[in-house]
């Protein structure tokens, strides 16, 4: 009968210990599975009867104890021995529960040692050379991978730690029960990690595409987008403005920028400025925090998102919904790097170093010209603009995207017929709409003929789901199409206007003169009203009007006030 090693996922030391047992104890003749304490009982129940002996390394015993006891008792009755190996004693609760339900491990090995690897090495006679090779991996802390690589304490540890995370991801989201074994086998054999062997390379690619905020697609459109986002990630002196239709993945793009920047080891926070129906006071409090006693109910000081994200990246979605007061405070933060919490005094200024990534599906340029968004703030947040393409612009990548999400949801790849059915639609809601359809399909998967208790993703009828979706949302789909047609015409018209935002001159004074002339005409040539809407004093406003007249941007006519 074969042997099985079940290793916990919580720390890389468990994989190092599994590698030591795999090589020293079983000489490469054992299977390896990754398992958590929540799934230990179920995995033993399903897999255990295939083996004569099972070692459980570094798996906590606090969940499903009744079922675990029953499974251990059944395995023992069938001649399967299960050994539990740990560097900590079994919790009293677990010991009593197992005894109460009549099940127990065939053997327990507990030693008070720094790592589980040391326990395995001492108990199962791991040779010194193997122990020396595995110790740096066992000491690698996933939470400080970057620091470990920077200090060069272990040149390969960052790769092994990445593989550890990739194997865990494959097990959790792709139901790949062989992933842990691939990494443990490579770890024991000391395979070169650069370049990775094909199975390991596949694990890393899947992990990067699914968890490391990698944008999926090979089309020229996606290649160009990744290039642009990589540039944004490197050029950290400029704040980023993400533009595009709803559902195009603006949050994913923001996280991609953060993960590929030098701030990736710091905090990434996200907030939607439309939260609270645009309530300026609520948004001000959320962004900048408040002092104790600032308002009724403020019983303690609370930091805002800017403080929480200090050193990292703050992503503000729907930035066009910010009130004038919030816009003014954002401008102050971006100009000076400091702000005051709500209710704060001049002695309570907070200094922060935060990179801002903003996003909107509204036309911010038109909002600037209409006086609904500050031009100076627009200049600060759009230092590096990125236009996110709609899904219909890179539809040739749709099979790759579907395979990625469908495998996450079901553990299976879609069939060729399912892919063909999904290609017959333009997805006006973009990737968000596609993912929603896939979730519907997952929920509607028919039962497997072999096992009625399990779903059969291969039999999901995507054509029927799409037909129903079109029928149910016909009014919305047609309305979006008409709206986008009007927007396209409007954009074409705007490009023909001499003061269109895309044709703004380089000098700031000329830009403000254009803005003043636009507001002047919009408010019926009333200087007072136009100056107030443009957030300028009347004298300053008149100065820019005079400049606009000299440039020939303002038709002749009298001022009405």
Concise account of the structure shown:
The chain is of the alpha/beta class. The chain folds into four domains: 2-210, no CATH class; 220-387, Rossmann fold (3-Layer(aba) Sandwich); 400-472, Orthogonal Bundle (Helicase, Ruva Protein, domain 3); 505-551. The chain contains 25 helices and twelve strands.
Number of strands: 12
Shape: elongated
C-alpha end-to-end distance: 97 Å
Q: Strand order across the biggest sheet?
A: 2-1-3-4-5
Count of discrete alpha- or pi-helical segments spanning 4 or more residues: 25
- Mean pLDDT, rounded to whole units? 80
Stretches where pLDDT is under 50 for at least 5 consecutive residues are: 142-153, 488-503
Summing up helix and strand content along with how strands pair, one would put the structural category as alpha/beta
**How large a portion of the residues is in β-strands, by DSSP E?**
5-15%
Total of domains: 4
Q: Level of helix content?
A: 40-55%
* Largest sheet geometry: 5 strands, parallel
In angstroms, what is the radius of gyration?
30 Å
Write the layout of secondary structure elements.
Blueprint (H helix, E strand, L loop, with lengths): L1 E7 L3 H14 L5 E5 L4 H8 L3 E7 L7 H13 L3 E6 L5 H10 L5 E4 L5 H8 L4 H11 L6 H6 L6 H17 L5 H11 L8 H13 L9 H15 L5 E4 L6 H10 L8 E5 L7 H9 L16 H4 L4 E5 L6 H13 L1 E3 L8 E3 L3 E6 L3 H6 L5 H7 L2 E4 L10 H13 L5 H7 L7 H14 L18 H11 L1 H23 L11 H15 L4 H7 L4 H14 L10
Parallel strand pairs: 1-2, 1-3, 3-4, 4-5, 6-11, 6-12, 7-8, 8-11
Antiparallel strand pairs: 9-10
Helix pairs in contact: 1-5, 1-6, 1-9, 2-3, 3-4, 5-6, 8-9, 8-10, 11-12, 13-15, 15-17, 18-20, 20-21, 23-24, 23-25, 24-25
């Amino acid at each position: 009968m074969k042997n099985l090693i079940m290793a916990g996922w919580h720390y890389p030391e468990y994989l190092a210990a599994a590698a030591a047992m795999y090589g020293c104890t079983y000489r490469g003749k054992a299977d390896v599975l990754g398992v958590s304490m929540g799934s230990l009982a179920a995995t033993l129940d399903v897999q255990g009867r295939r083996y004569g002996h099972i070692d459980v390394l570094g798996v906590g015993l606090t969940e499903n104890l009744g079922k675990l006891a029953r499974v251990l008792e059944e395995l023992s009755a069938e001649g399967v021995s299960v050994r539990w190996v740990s560097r900590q004693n079994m919790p009293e609760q677990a010991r009593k529960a197992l005894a109460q339900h009549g099940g127990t491990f065939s053997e327990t090995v507990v030693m008070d040692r720094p790592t589980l690897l040391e326990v395995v090495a001492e108990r199962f006679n791991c040779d010194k050379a193997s122990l020396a090779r595995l110790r740096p991996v066992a000491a690698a802390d996933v939470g400080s991978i970057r620091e470990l690589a920077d200090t060069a304490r272990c040149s390969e540890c960052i790769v092994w730690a990445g593989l550890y995370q990739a194997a865990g991801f494959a097990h959790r989201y792709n139901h790949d029960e062989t992933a842990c074994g691939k990494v443990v086998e490579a770890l024991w054999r000391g395979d070169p990690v650069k370049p990775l062997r094909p199975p390991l390379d596949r694990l890393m690619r899947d992990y990067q595409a699914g968890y490391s905020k990698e944008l999926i697609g090979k089309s020229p459109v996606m290649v160009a987008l990744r290039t642009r986002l990589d540039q944004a990630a490197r050029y950290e002196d400029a704040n980023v403005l993400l533009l595009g239709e709803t559902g195009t993945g603006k949050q994913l793009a923001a996280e991609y920028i953060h993960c590929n920047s030098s701030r990736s080891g710091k905090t990434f926070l996200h907030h939607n400025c439309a939260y609270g129906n645009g309530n300026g006071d609520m948004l001000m409090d959320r962004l900048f925090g408040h002092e104790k006693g600032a308002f009724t109910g403020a019983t303690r000081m609370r930091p805002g998102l800017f403080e929480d994200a200090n050193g990292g990246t703050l992503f503000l979605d729907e930035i066009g919904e910010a009130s004038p007061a919030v816009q003014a405070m954002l401008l102050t933060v971006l100009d000076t790097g400091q702000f005051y919490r709500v209710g704060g005094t001049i002695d309570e200024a907070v200094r922060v170093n935060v990179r801002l990534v903003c996003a909107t599906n509204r036309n911010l340029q038109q909002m600037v010209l209409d006086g609904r968004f500050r031009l100076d703030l627009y200049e600060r947040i759009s230092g590096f603009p990125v236009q996110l393409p709609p899904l219909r612009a890179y539809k040739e990548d749709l099979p790759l995207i579907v395979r990625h999400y469908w495998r996450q949801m079901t553990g299976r790849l879609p069939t060729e017929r399912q892919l063909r059915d999904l290609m017959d639609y333009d997805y006006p809601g973009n990737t968000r709409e596609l993912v929603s359809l896939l979730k519907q399909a997952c929920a509607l998967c028919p039962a497997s003929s072999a096992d009625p208790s399990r779903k059969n993703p291969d039999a999901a009828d995507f054509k029927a789901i799409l037909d129903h979706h079109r029928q149910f949302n016909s009014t919305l789909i047609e309305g979006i199409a008409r709206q986008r047609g009007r927007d396209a015409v409007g954009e074409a018209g705007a490009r023909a206007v001499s003061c269109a935002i895309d044709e703004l001159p380089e000098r700031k004074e000329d830009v403000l003169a254009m803005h003043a002339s636009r507001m002047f005409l919009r408010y019926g040539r009333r200087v007072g009203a136009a100056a107030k809407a443009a957030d300028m004093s009347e004298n300053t406003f008149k100065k820019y009007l005079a400049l606009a007249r000299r440039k020939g941007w303002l038709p002749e006519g009298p001022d009405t006030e």
